[in-house]
Amino acid sequence: MRTSNQNDSDPDQDVVFEVRDLEVTFGTNRGESRVVRNVDFDIYRNETLGMVGESGSGKSMTSSALMNAVVSPGETSGEVTYYPPDGGEPISVLDLDEEELRKFRWGEVAMVFQGAMSSFNPVKKVRGHFKETLEDHNRDVEAGLERARQILGDLYLDPDRVLDSYPYELSGGMKQRALVALALILEPEVLVMDEPTAALDLLMQRSIVSLLKDLKEEYDLTIIFITHDLPLLTKLADRLVVMYAFDIVEVGSTEEILYDAAHPYTRSLLNATPDLNAPIEEMQSISGSKPDPVTNIPGCSYRPRCPMADESCAEAEPPMADRGNGHRTACFYHDDVSDEIPIPAMEAAEEGGEGE
Amino acid sequence: MTPKYLLKRLGQAILTFLVTMTVSFLLYQAMPGGPTEAMRSVILSQSGGSVDIDRLNRMIQLYTNVNPDQPMHVQYFNYASDVILRQDLGTSFFKNEKVTTLIMQRIPWSMFISVYALALGYSLSIFLGVMTAYREKSRFDSTVSSLIIGLNSIPYYIVGVVLIYFLAIQNNYFPTGGRIGSGIAAGYNPEFMLSLVKHAALPAISMGALATSGALAMRGNAIRVLGEDYIRVAQLRGLRETRIATQYLGHNSILPMYTQFMIGIAGVFSSAVIVEEVFAYPGMGLLMFEAVKTQDYPLLMGTLLVFTAISLTAIFIADLTYTLIDPRISVGEE
Ligand code: SF4
């Protein structure tokens, strides 16, 4: 077990979310399925945090837990603390009652997720979606709709046309952007984007990314971007969180992770992504089978697939080792990883000048 | 909605009406003895056999709009033109009044219990369907679902008889029959209203039982809709539960059932024939039932045509209003 004092928040950073000992479990007939295991991390205000990992590694569940929105019958435990801006009282998200939680959602944290294409009620006009959101959060509807127009305009949409349309009348990309606008309507602090680009074509993906950068500046957002598309993240995120087998295996600034990845899994991810300018469909190129949420592997969870594994890896779970500058990784041999698992593409890039 | 589509639908409805009219006309003629034969014997027995044949035929023509001496197609043509051009359905020879007059007197009452039944049945269907979907696989779900299956396997008139026995005969909660308590003045007074509702309650409930068959389908739809992304997003958006239950879950679950509901209106309305007999509720159904018993051919034909017209109108309206509840369907573009 990791000791949590190792993970105490960096005092220099303005933390917006503090997550400690987060667990998400589902009861199944094969036994308890633990889909998020003992996760600790912080989210800093106004950063873009990228979460990467295979599908089913626990990244979506972790982000849902930020809004206490794990789908039933999932059970969430641990601590999720939200720090409002300007030094307001910290909020323990998992302890909110139903009504408090309802107000918290979308007001403080909004989420755009995979199913953007079907995130709108098919029988309601887009305007109705904005209106009801404002109403149910007791906001001024007129002022809110004015704001909606402005955000839609910022997203290069024709506000009146979009507002007067039914969802089915909009294209995928338009719906996506309308959903982003809907997410910003209540001026949330944090915007979670869970695979928001999965259903979009390449061009659309890239334009959403540049839009997000602008939005972040304009609306003072903290963005959590979840994807299995590592190349996309490297262009967008300030920091990266790498998840494997329901837990975080490595955290650090994007630079650190790209050029000094210290976990074998992260390095194999980077190796599976030969060209960081091209997106990949799904990271399946890593050998070995996906971890099973019901079984508990003693020791390091990456052991079955790790080329560096030895007996000591089976005996204990590796603690989060601090490599300085907020770069932490859960591997006993983090100092040897760069020698053992080289990343040819990265070295070539370094030789040929810095990154891009 | 294009005018072309409207015309097409209207044309179909009218055609269906004509076909129904023709088929029932022919079927009645083909019955052993036929309506004129039956009528002849009724009149003969009433007048003690002292009517000459010409007078008899004239009387029959007067009542049924059909002259038995003419060939079949001429009879049909005369009848049809009376119905369509003059809205004349003939005269009931048992009650000796215009069929249209009789029907007009009774229609509001049948409408009243039917609407009452539909409101009860459909709101219960929707409510129970959504509730059981919300609590899928719970004790509540299995109890309600089995009750509905049970209720739907019992014919509605049996439900009616059971209701009368327990609520009207064993206990005096409701009257056993009739439309209104005796000695109550008609008008907008509470006593009259209450009596009206009380008399209509049992027939409406047993007809409404017919309309609860939608609950299970509604449950299935609601379970499917609950799995949709927009429901989850609505919850993440912090919308009020009541809004999600009605505007998101309710509305989208009703869509696939809307047409079925509208056609159900016709079904419920025609169940009036038996229900009104069971409850001695003098509406149009009872009128039809009496017409069958007394072999009152013009009245029978008339009520049948009116029932057909009502059903067709309901389906027509369902077609036209579907776009209002589902914007994705743009009618007329196939
Ligand atoms: S702890 Fe051992 S098994 Fe786990 S990643 Fe490091 S070397 Fe591999």
TrEMBL record, chain A:
Keywords: ATP-binding, Cell inner membrane, Cell membrane, Membrane, Nucleotide-binding, Translocase, Transport. Gene3D superfamilies: P-loop containing nucleotide triphosphate hydrolases. The keyword Hydrolase does not apply. It is a peripheral membrane protein. It is found in: Cell membrane. Coiled coil: none annotated. This is Peptide ABC transporter ATP-binding protein.
